[in-house]
């Protein structure tokens, strides 16, 4: 018998993953479906129900005590609804109610995907042992979450720590969120690639124009590619420094696809941080790469529900 067995869902614009996770963070059963992101809301819910169906069919299901959901956002944990930017069929969608209908009214905890990844990194990854941390996901978008005083800090609606929409350029480009000069508008993968192309970088013979291709060119010394990563790093540094100044974090963890660029991003980020994190209490701030990999969302959703239930191993 596994003690502290919980179910977890990780819902994104590409895939919906589910798992049964024990109190040590081990994934015992997993299921996955592609997200039919451009279809109507009930079709998307059908994919979630498919994942849940596989989990409930497991002989271990009878021991499951609660379910955690990490979802692309914005989410509203207080209302139990989700409105993921990249799933247009879900706007104020009553996800918690629908999930409870499938799972026999298990207790459900909903958080944003950035908060979920933060929970995972704090429990078992790069932020372990840190009482005050910011964890960031830098990929198609830029998200994040906070650990304050040793506790995950999701905020009332589950979106606290959403650093991608701090403005770091007062008169900057309009962001799709409606604001200007957001971190995400400068530092996300598609925006790194867009800026490199606008400034004259050209993809190789394979035609790959992704941020990963820009990172490869930067590693090869391409000045335009390097400059695009440096601009992204500067935006991230300003956002991280603002956060550290506001709530006194001592570590920032960078994950997501763009985070995999390694030193192409982290070296200029650490250099830029010296220009922004200048007060005595933020000068010791360290920046490091995430450790949890692709299962972070699932492990984090489990961590959040275990912590809420007072499980000793997760807190």
From TrEMBL:
Organism: Streptomyces spongiae
Gene3D superfamilies tied to this protein: 3.30.420.40
Classification via SUPFAM superfamilies: Actin-like ATPase domain (SSF53067)
Protein name in UniProt: ROK family protein
Entry-linked InterPro entries: ATPase_NBD, ROK, ROK_cs
PROSITE patterns linked: ROK
Family: Belongs to the ROK (NagC/XylR) family.
Membrane-traversing stretches: none
């Amino acid at each position: 018998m596994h003690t502290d067995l919980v179910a977890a869902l990780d819902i994104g614009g590409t895939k919906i993953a589910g798992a049964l996770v024990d109190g040590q963070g081990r994934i015992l059963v997993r299921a996955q479906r592609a997200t039919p992101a451009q279809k109507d809301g009930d079709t998307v819910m059908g994919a979630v129900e498919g994942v849940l169906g596989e989990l409930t069919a497991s002989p271990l299901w009878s021991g499951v005590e609660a379910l955690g959901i990490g979802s692309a956002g914005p989410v509203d944990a207080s209302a139990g609804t989700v409105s993921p930017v990249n799933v247009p069929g879900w706007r104020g969608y009553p996800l918690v109610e629908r999930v409870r209908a499938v799972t026999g009214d298990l207790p459900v905890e909903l958080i944003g995907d950035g908060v979920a990844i933060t929970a995972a990194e704090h429990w078992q990854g790069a932020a372990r042992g840190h009482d005050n941390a910011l964890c960031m996901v830098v990929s198609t978008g830029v998200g994040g979450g906070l650990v304050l005083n040793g506790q995950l800090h999701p905020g009332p609606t589950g979106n606290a720590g959403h650093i991608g929409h701090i403005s770091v350029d007062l008169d900057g480009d309009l962001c799709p969120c409606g604001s200007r000069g957001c971190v995400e508008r400068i530092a996300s993968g598609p925006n790194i690639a867009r800026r490199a192309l606008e400034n004259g970088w050209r993809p190789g013979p394979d035609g790959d124009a992704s941020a990963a291709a820009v990172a490869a060119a930067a590693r090869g010394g391409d000045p335009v590619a390097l400059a695009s990563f440096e601009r992204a790093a500067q935006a991230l540094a300003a956002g991280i420094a603002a956060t550290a100044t506001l709530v006194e974090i001592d570590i920032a963890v960078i994950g997501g696809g763009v985070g995999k660029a390694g030193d192409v991003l982290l070296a200029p980020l650490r250099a830029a941080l010296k220009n922004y994190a200048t007060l005595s209490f933020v000068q010791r701030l360290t920046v490091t790469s995430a450790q949890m990999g692709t299962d972070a969302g699932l492990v984090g959703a489990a961590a959040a529900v275990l912590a809420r239930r007072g499980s000793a191993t997760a807190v």
